[in-house]
Amino acid sequence: MGEKSEIKKKYILDKARTVFSENGFKSVTMKDIVDACEISRGGLYLYFSSTDELFLSVLSSETEEDDEETITAALTGTATAGDMLALFLKEQKKEILRKKNNLTVATYEYFFANKLAPKDNPLKDQFDTAVRIIERLIENGIESGEFYCENPLGCARNLMYVVEGLKITSKTVGISEEAIDKELMYVLEGLVPDELNINDD
Amino acid sequence: MGEKSEIKKKYILDKARTVFSENGFKSVTMKDIVDACEISRGGLYLYFSSTDELFLSVLSSETEEDDEETITAALTGTATAGDMLALFLKEQKKEILRKKNNLTVATYEYFFANKLAPKDNPLKDQFDTAVRIIERLIENGIESGEFYCENPLGCARNLMYVVEGLKITSKTVGISEEAIDKELMYVLEGLVPDELNINDD
After folding, report:
1. CB B145: neighbour CB atoms within 10 A?
2. Taking phi first (over 0 means left), then psi (-120 to 50 degrees means alpha), and beta for anything else, what does residue A101 get?
3. Architecture of the structural domain at B3-56
């Protein structure tokens, strides 16, 4: 693909992202994308043949940003495990609370309608990657004596299911930043050896 | 409302429940309900004036079934706290795995589109009630020496956010019964004093 085509494709993906974040996935048509891009129908179909294809492209351009390289870099840094885990959770929290350009509802709507096999499902991929990162951070924290945990994988999965629970709750019931902090702190405090746990209650 | 009207209304709600569980909320129209009920449009509007009203009625006829009376009865029974907590979680699991007449997706779609104030939001109500029950069960278990837990409310909330996470995961990525068991057991094992925990790993 030529450079001009690449630029055009990226332009379409940017516009589509906005449309999906404002309207979800289910009710968005190719015409909506055409209108948002102010291009011809033929111009759009040159690059994408369906809203399904468009949405998956938007989603994958998304996940590339926080790919494993970044993560490995973070894991080999000089910060403590506790700091890094807190940083990771801060990112999750920011995503949950993000108002503008938020793809959460569109993502749910897409996957309600499209059942993908586990190996092709980018959501499963994201979840499993996050669990692996947290597990590693907990293990690092155990080695350095910051954390105490008998089952790092179990704790990592518990934390990520809580994050999923917070994410859907924020879209159906609404949730405050304080409430998110409280849930994440509950898990983090469980990792801190009793003698260090000043917030024990 | 006369008895005949009550029967008719219940008939419409039953049919609407099926339509919502098969198609979600967002794309369902009053005509879909008219068709499913095989009644006239006027016949439907006599009872309900919108799919919003219909859906909330379906949802509230739902929650009445597991109302607090049932719960209080369960809480004052002779079973151990551990047994009752396990029973409660078995019900949650059954709901997550339920294939037929499952309103989960429709419920998400309804609340994505309709932001209700916390005090009017039946989902928030359900969640808070569940948290209160689990907290009470944990407290009972602590009293009887079955459980050890420093923060029953925190643990109850953690468990319910995990349940929410499992629920949305089952609709987007898919989840096995074994995977659900693993997550719930992780929390339950955390409640059992170390000397009793044969599954410690």
Report:
1. 10
2. left
3. Orthogonal Bundle (1.10)
Q: Is B117 left (phi over 0), alpha (psi -120 to 50) or beta?
A: beta
B66-196 homologous superfamily: Tetracycline Repressor, domain 2 (1.10.357.10)
Contacts of B168 in chain A (CB under 8 A): 108, 164-165, 167-168
Using CA atoms, how far residue B67 sits from A83, B63, B73, B162, in Å, is 43, 6, 11, 22
pLDDT in tens, A35-63: 999 999 999 999 999 999 999 999 988 76
CA distance B201 to chain A (A): 6
Is B121 an interface residue toward A (CB < 8 Å)? yes
- Option in B26, B123, B168 nearest A173 (CB): B123
Q: Give per-residue pLDDT as tens, A104-140.
A: 999 999 999 998 888 889 999 999 999 999 999 999 9
Tokens standing for residue B75: 């809480």
User: Does the beta carbon of B108 lie under 8 angstroms from any beta carbon of chain A?
Assistant: yes
Band (B201; pLDDT cuts 50, 70, 90): very low
CB < 8 Å from B in window 34-63 of A: none
Which sequence spans correspond to the domains of chain A? Answer: 3-56, 66-196
Helix axes B30-37, B3-23, angle to 10 degrees: 120
- The contacts of residue B97 (CB under 8 Å, 6+ apart) are B170, B177, B180
Tell me, what's the pLDDT at A200? 46
Give the burial class of B67: count Cβ atoms within 10 A of its Cβ; 0-12 exposed, 13-18 middle, 19 or more buried: exposed
Distance CA B169, CA A30 (A): 28
Nearest to A108 among B108, B150, B164 (CB): B108
Looking at residue B10, its pLDDT comes to 94
B193 within 8 A of B147, measured Cβ to Cβ: yes
pLDDT tens track for B77-87: 678 888 889 98
Among the partner residues A109, A121, A161, nearest to B162 by beta-carbon distance: A161
Encoding tokens for residue B142?
């602590």
**Tokens standing for residue A155:** 């704790």
